[in-house]
Amino acid sequence: MPQKSFSRFSLLSTTALVVACLAPAIYSIGAKAADPTAPATPAAQAPADPSKPAAAKPAVRVEKAEKPEEVVVTGAKYGATGAGLLANSTDIKSSVASTAEYIATQPPTENPERLLALQPGIVVAAQDPYGTEPGNITVRGLNLNEIQWLYEGSPITNDGTFNSTEAVDAPNLVEVRLNPGSTNFDKPGSSGAAGTIDMLLRNPPHQAGGYASFSYGSYNSSQEFFRLDTGDIGDTGVRGFVSFSNFFGDDWRGPGTTKRQHIDSKFVKD
After folding, report:
1. Sign of the C-alpha dihedral, residues 100, 194, 159, 129?
2. Does residue 140 share a domain with residue 214?
3. Which pLDDT tens digit goes with each residue over 62-96?
4. Which residue in 112, 74, 83, 113 sits closest to 201, CA to CA?
5. Which of 201, 233, 260 is the last residue of a domain?
6. Are residues 118 and 158 in the same domain?
7. For 92-130, what is each residue's pLDDT tens digit?
8. Of 34, 76, 239, 262, which has the most beta carbons under 10 Å away?
9. Cα torsion for 173, 175, 176, 181, to the nearest 10°?
């Protein structure tokens, strides 16, 4: 019996000694070597001391917009319909008109006839490229003698002999409208079997000011145009404008020169 117990004790001691020797080797095989240059990870750091309070995490600030963002896009008007040649009309009768947008793009020497040259239903023939000489106009096969001309709503011809180049300077016009066909009963005059042409002047502004333009072209042509706006005159409610133009040019066909001086004015009372 004593001999067996000693043998059993020797076997247990030998087993414990082998396990104790092999434990560091097994641990070194399963663990990875630590990189001395790598930053410490939370797992590698020492465990927190339960006796010390944990460090508070920094608060994350969340900002909320007081109101939704609003995007506003603004833009200018691209241009008049048809470049100023397609004007809106509420008349029960068909009509065509050249408005201020189109007139502003034309030479300042143009006359009301030439300003309607691109409108349908009308044929315009000019004697000179300036627009200062009398031309010829035809509407529905009828000539100038059958057209009623109105200037600010007032008739300026009754016998058909009318020179539109002597009526008004183009920079002062805001509209030239043609109503083909016989003149309406509510219009003054009765000589418009072919149609009625109405010329409208600009309204003088409430603020005083002025405008000047100078033009120069072929055949030694030149024109100076000046306009003065009075604005509201005191407490009278009256305002107006006065304009003056001076044109000179060589005749484009044959010798000679063309001269033209013109004055326009308009006064209104509110």
Report:
1. positive
2. no
3. 666 677 778 887 765 556 677 888 877 777 778 89
4. 112
5. 201
6. yes
7. 778 899 999 999 999 888 999 999 999 988 999 888 888
8. 239
9. -150
